[in-house]
Amino acid sequence: MTxxxxxxxxxxxxxxxxxxxxxxxxxRWSSPGTRIAYAAEHLSLAMVEYFVHLNADDPPKxxxxxxxxxxxxxxxIVIAQHDLPADWRQVPAGPTLADIGDSFVAERQAAVxxxxxxxxxxxxxxxxxxxxxxxxxxxxxxxxxxxxxARFFG
Length: 154
Hints:
The chain is α+β, with helices and mostly antiparallel strands and 154 residues long.
């Protein structure tokens, strides 16, 4: 069993792994129109991943952390750094990475795609396909209040 984490605004916590944000806006590993939920293998990585998108002058006060327990029996595909293009960490991300995530969702060969974090390449983000049949085996935990330490903004 692996627990993964997402940090998000409380308003979105009810359906925290439905992939709606990625569906609307896309991301490094998906295009708009692709439903996929981004999660991190460690809470600290989830903090970093969310933090880089914050406005330091006006951080939200309604953040929560939501965990999900993924049984070892849930299918996954792992992509290693050496399998990615040399520019995979660039900002903004090139379309090749979004193509990887889009294909992963469309092909439905696995419920989870494990990819290296562009911020901490030695750690992984877990991209979860909420329309895969094995999504039902993933236990989403109740949201818990989350707040960044004020030193992050100092």
